[in-house]
Amino acid sequence: MNETSSPRTFLSAVLAVVALLLVAFQIYTAGYAPMTAIYQRSIHLTFILVLLFLSTPVSRRWPPALRWLVDGALIAASLAMGGYIYFNYNAIIDRFGWWEPSDIYMGVVAVLLVLEATRRAIGWPMTIISALFIVYAYAGPHMPGVLAHKGYGTERLVGQLYLTTEGIFGVPLGVAATFVFIFILFGSLLEATGAGKFFIDLAYALAGKSRGGPAKASVVASAFMGSLSGSAIANVVTTGAFTIPLMKKLGYKPEEAAGVEAAASTGGQIMPPIMGAGAFLIAEYTQTPYLTVVKLSIVPAILYFLTVYLFVDLIAAKRGMRGMPASELPSTKKVMLEGWHYLIPLFILIYYLFKGVSAMKVGFIGVLAIVLASNLRPRPGNELGRRLHVLLHLVAMGYLLYIGFQPSRGFALWQFYLVVGMVIASSLSPYSPLNLPRLAQGLVSGAMSSIPVSVATAAAGIVVGVVGLTGVGLKFSHLVVSASGGHLLLALLLVALASLVLGMGLPVTASYIVLVVLAGPALQDLGVPLIVAHLIVFWYSQDSNVTPPVALAAYAASGLAGTDAMRAGVQAWKFAKGLYLIPLLMVYAPGIMFTGTPTQIAIDLTRGLLGLWSFAAALEGYMFREARPHERLLLVAAGVGLFWPSLTVNLAGFALLALAVVLGRRGR
After folding, report:
1. Fewest C-beta in 10 Å: which of 46, 238, 474, 654?
2. What predicted TM-score, i.e. pTM, was given to this entire model?
């Protein structure tokens, strides 16, 4: 047993060291010295590849010696690939277009490394899609119709994908290597401090008494957690461990409990202030301040959670469920007294975002603030020591906030080392709830959690690079516009269908990048503003969490619920219908994003809420009692009428909804 455990212990130690080195690099560049794009991205990707090849073997069926030989070779190749770019980039720029053979050889290695990393971290679908785009770059003259192009050789293709910032080291990886990593680290440390339990208890205190209480608490808790973690699967495993068993106990079917949790957790990636990698990509692609993306997303995200909440309430009403007894619920006052300090990092994030501080610097300040804030409720011990501990951390927190707001420049080097030193020193205190081992564990967990996102964005960089090289994006957009006949609604449905297909094989970030590069220009050609087009595609891409046969959030929830994964996926897909409906409101009722006159905003919000309620009631087949077929048809027609961009049709939709309500109440 010692012979077996010794290599594993050594491997775990190496993994931890590499992960902590990556964290140190990311914190240093986020808080003090941002690097030139190509250097930041190449170093980040090198760390990610090394971590992946260390932690995920090529095949568990292979003999250990062969596995180590292959993985060791890939780790060495990753270091060589990253080092080649880092140490030779100035020379590469000088000979731009006149590549040396070593440039091309190393570029081929880089592409193969990314494809293998994609296979291990994400799976075959994204790997195959990236490979098909590479084949498309070669086979241009043999492609049919508008898809044909002149074709490109290895030198031109590799130059695009490896030796410029238009391919693997493009904008997607750049966002993952800066903003996304630091916010993943933020979420990981937040979980390490025990904030997850606080948000779950708060959700139960607020929603537990109403009918279907645990399910509603799941929605509320996912909104809380999602606003900070930005990860659907993380939300599922965090909140679902508590809410799913209680939902089943209350009377929800296992697949319904899993579906509610998956749909609610998916909302975490669209809920400000942290909205997953996609929101940072939107800001980067559209050259829009991240705060603007947040402002435009607040009300649509709330509407999404309200839609899931409506489904939960309708099921509870249909089955005569009641809320949980007050004796089994935590007190709101007690929960807030014990966990108020977990809200401090959230307020800090929001404050600095609204003050115009860069998202990268906000994430850095937030990471430090989590550790300091967690120490405001010290562990039991000598009372004088505890008070001194709290006082010192209040001073440290105040100093961090004082020097944090410097929008014109970053931290001075001595300030950077001081605030980081304060955080490390705080974990050494005997009163610290987040001691050094737990802090290190949280940092390592954050680094490991970033692997799938970074690999996905690197693979998406291959797609983006080929699209830019061949011009297929414009051709695809032309096809969408032609197929829709110039009708925006039909184009939106086609984009949603494409997203549905992509969502069966790709994670959210990869699905968004591929779809927005191909279909985003088509929506713009039909009059959709740039930022709205990106938000629509971003929302549609979320269905990869809840779309069978590959619905990752639903699958995670099904394990907790003890039910069939496919049934959970179907239920999650039903509960998450807001992902398809609310983007329509972004186009046809822009007032939900607070654009237009106050009157228009009020009208759009009202018809949006009523329309979503109509669709939810029609899908669930329940209003005040079981809805009859003709009443469900009335509800669908009412929803369509309320969504339609015409005041006359809106009034007709409202009349149909009123008729359905009257019929439902009379037959109750």
Report:
1. 474
2. 0.77
